[in-house]
């Protein structure tokens, strides 16, 4: 495919994703309105609302990746308490955690701060957290701490852990990612890309995944300089 044709197709795709995102926003509002008029905490509507939010986050990630690829993306960096970011992730996931009876523990020093893009970091972590609670048995842990010149945000679960094929690839290399099997590939690629854009001097953000969770399952770590 000629380069100009690829660029044209990429622009059309980005426009389509933007339209879908707008439609999802309307759908989310309607679901929330209908759910409010029905039985409190109706599990069917909780599931619908959660899935609509998840799709909306995927659309946001695709648009951000398009802008990054076309040099149209800028981070909105400011200083934030990491507890605020963890609270945002917890709020995003609360309905499904309650519905699936998943126990969540959160640990973060009150004074721990980070210079980062709040919206993209919290949404990216939310995607990883969604996969963790989806594959967990009964527990998920969310934590943050200082790690040398970096702050480290960690998500752990008590599930079966990451498969070997995912542990053996570089999540920043889109050619190694499996885009067919589910959202895990997009989530890891997106958060790795966003992390790498966070720079401080000669240091830049990065992610690590392994199966050394304190709960016995998968462990995801995001390092920000």
From TrEMBL:
The keyword Zinc-finger does not apply. Pfam families: HATPase_c (PF02518). One of its GO terms (molecular function) is phosphorelay sensor kinase activity. Signal peptide: none annotated. Keywords: Kinase, Phosphoprotein, Transferase. InterPro entries: HATPase_C_sf (IPR036890), HATPase_dom (IPR003594), His_kinase_dom (IPR005467), Sig_transdc_His_kin-like_C (IPR004358). It comes from the Bacteria. Its EC number is 2.7.13.3. The keyword Ubl conjugation does not apply. It catalyses: ATP + protein L-histidine = ADP + protein N-phospho-L-histidine. Residues 15-225 form the Histidine kinase domain. This is histidine kinase.
């Amino acid at each position: 495919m000629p380069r100009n044709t690829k660029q044209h197709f990429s622009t059309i795709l980005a426009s389509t994703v933007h339209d879908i995102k707008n439609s999802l926003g309307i759908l989310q509002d309607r679901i929330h309105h209908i759910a409010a008029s029905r039985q409190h905490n109706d599990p069917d509507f909780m599931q619908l609302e959660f899935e609509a939010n998840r799709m909306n986050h995927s659309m946001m990630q695709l648009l951000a990746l398009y802008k990054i690829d076309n040099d149209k993306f800028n981070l909105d960096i400011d200083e934030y308490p990491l507890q605020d970011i963890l609270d945002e992730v917890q709020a995003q996931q609360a309905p499904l955690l309650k519905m699936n009876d998943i126990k969540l523990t959160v640990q973060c020093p009150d004074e721990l701060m980070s210079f980062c893009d709040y919206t993209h970091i919290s949404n990216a972590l939310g995607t990883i957290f969604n996969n963790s609670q989806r594959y967990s048995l009964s527990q998920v842990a969310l934590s943050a701490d200082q790690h040398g010149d970096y702050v480290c945000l960690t998500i752990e679960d008590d599930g079966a852990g990451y498969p070997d094929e995912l542990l053996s690839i570089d999540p920043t290399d889109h050619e190694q990612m499996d885009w067919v099997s589910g959202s895990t590939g997009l989530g890891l690629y997106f958060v790795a890309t966003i992390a790498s854009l966070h720079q401080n001097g000669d240091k830049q953000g990065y992610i690590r995944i392994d199966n050394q969770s304190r709960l016995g399952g998968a462990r995801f770590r995001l390092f920000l300089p």
